[in-house]
Structure prediction request, 347 residues.
Amino acid sequence: MRELERKTEQPDLWQDRERAEGILTRLKSLKRRFEPWQKLRAEVADLAELYELAVAEEEGDLEEEIAGTAADLGRTYTQLQQREWMSGEHDAASCYLTVHAGAGGTEACDWVAMLLRLYSRWAERHRFGVEIIDLTEAEGGVKSVTTEVSGEFAFGFLRAESGIHRLVRISPFDASKRRHTTFASVAASPVIDDSIDVEIRPEDLRVDTYRSSGAGGQHVNKTDSAVRMTHLPTGIVVQCQNERSQHKNRATAMKVLRSRLYDHYAEQQRAERRDLEADKRDISWGNQIRSYVFQPYTMVKDHRTKFEVGNVQAVMDGAIDPFITEYLKQASGSRRAANGGSAGASG
Prediction:
């Protein structure tokens, strides 16, 4: 970082604008990464001094303050450590999160609605914004939904959720009270800025308009304001119906499509470089990444990391951070091993 700072002081820096902007972008990224660690180190040193003072002066009334500060610093450390594991190019970006129902009719649509609630609750815990971009309702719940989760590192966290999620429970829709298994797919992609070049040729795109359905008032149902875009070479389909204006829905759908295509092509490149990579996402039915069991026992288990908990209700209320943390930790370790064991900076 000091080397980059010295470069910014060179008088001829802006003779090459592209190089200068690259240096400043890199420097900003490094500062965003290291300055919180420097602040944490200083705060730990201050706490150590306070503790030594309390011991020397036998100030017992400082015990509660010291314990509270130590707990806060511990949480800060955990958050910074998680960000060390999120070193991908777009991990700091906001996220488009799409959930689709698998086979199972009403049961599967109810499962999508449950997952939508889970991720909304999780986002609230992190003070992330959540906006529904497209929602297709169906009997018993939601057939598919795309949301934009806005906040720093939203994609870095939620990429851990991409894959198949399996639900096992006694169905409330089955009069015979039999146990059912159903699936839903979750796909996370980064909200990329306009500087990312993703080529979308007009001849590769089919655009359909239709009348919006579901919530939104009477006006949205009277005009063909909803937009569905199909990228023919990849088969990727996105749609948007949350705005009254077809123009706005078209712009939002194009933005989501660019993000999905970027993630698709990036995944293609990773697959070509490595036949098997540690964090590869297999989105085929029957290859679930996580199981949520309500009966005959309660358990949520991640099949990639083997991490599991017994409190299903807490998980359904958004308590998925332990699963995300275990995934990020494992993925980070695999990347370090692939790179010859080099470790990232930690404070």
